[in-house]
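User: I want to check something. If I give you two sequences, will you return the structure for each one separately, not as a complex?

Assistant: Yes, each is folded on its own. Here is the first sequence with its structure:
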Amino acid sequence: MFTGIIEEVGIIKEIKKGINSSHITVECKDILSDVKNGDSIAVNGVCLTVTSFDKTIFCADVMSETLSRSSLGSLSAGSSVNLERAMAANGRFGGHIVSGHIDGTGVITNMKKDDIAVWITIKTKTEILKLIVEKGSIAIDGISLTVTGVDDTCFTVSIIPHTEASTTLLTKKKGDIVNLENDIIGKYVGKLMTFGKEKNEGKSTLTRDFLTKYGF
């Protein structure tokens, strides 16, 4: 589990592409102080498992499912990425609950300066938008952000100077793709609200036994 508070910006040093997978090497420093093989590190919001490391790099495998759902497949050597270690049990919860399991991607359609802040508009698919609420949380490339507005095609967030300085988000431009993860609480609520409806769509769930049991 992660919090969406980025610890360090790393650099992709090497990508070895397989038929349906990739092996990436990420150059970084701060987050390697206590790393072990098997640890989880979020790379642009995608939870990856450390397979090897030394004092300046760590390596991870990226499977086909991850490549198809995220923007990791578009990275190349020299790309900057947001990094966060899995949350320690005694850590502060500064952002929101982030699983590192990407729901899909969005496209930046507008970036507008507003005094010290920058407004970013992101277009994405309906399946993601239906779980986004104004003033709710969303992870964009692993960054925990508050939604400032949402409609049928896009949503907006506002970036403060600290986020600009600590992440890669404002190095992007209009048309760039970003990874999106909905608030996990919203996903569970959405599942519970629709559970069984697809199977019973168009059919009544009332039975004679049910009505008799309750006095009808």
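And separately, the second sequence with its own structure:
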Amino acid sequence: MKLLFLGTAGYHPNEQRQTTCLMLPEAGIVLDAGTGLFRIRDHLQTSTLDIFLSHAHLDHTFGLTVLLDALYEKDVQRVTVHGDRAKLAAIERHLFAPEIFPVAAPFVSRPIEQGLRLASGARVTHFPLDHPGGSIGYRFDWSDRSLAFVTDTTSAGDASPYLPHIRGVDLLVHECNFRDGQEPWAEKTGHSSTTPVARAAAAASVKRLVLMHFNPLETSDDPVGLATARAIFPATELAYDGMAVEI
């Protein structure tokens, strides 16, 4: 099963990266709805689509407003957006207010429930993350593979409270907005830096780690110091827009 990285920046797009959006085309799953969501149009394979939101900040939800075009003339019968009840209500009340978005939202909202089962066979669990305004992480377990998605949080390394929820996953996708040395900004904005994330992956005994949600002011191919992460957790990769990995 392929995981596509359609947007790998945080806060705002830059010339190299759109904001956070991932897709599992075979399963009809989208993780967050940043500005990269317009790219789902070229990868749709299912008649239903389940979009899981970590939180309601615009760099993770703006893409919902382009769903009409992304789905135009595509055979998608149902789109469900899952997330925290209060966050979903805020999105519908504000982002899709008639003064801002003049037609009905092209999806139904569903407050996330623990142990949700999807048509692809995945069991979905979620857990709280430390981020201004609140955020949630997700874990997807199939019979033969597993994925955890942790974004918009300040990792506390091997003391991170979410470690039990990601333990032993085949693939951990984790935000890493800042490189080491920028910890004050990480704390201020509710994001993570390189070393704590790598330590969290090692402590949770995950099999692979992919870092994403990079600071858009960092425009190099190595925005957070890959060697630093690999010195702690060797099976680390840096995501880029258009990247595809097998789970």
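Because they were folded independently, the notes below concern the second chain alone. Residues 27 and 120 are 5 Å apart (CA to CA). The chain has one domain: 2-241.
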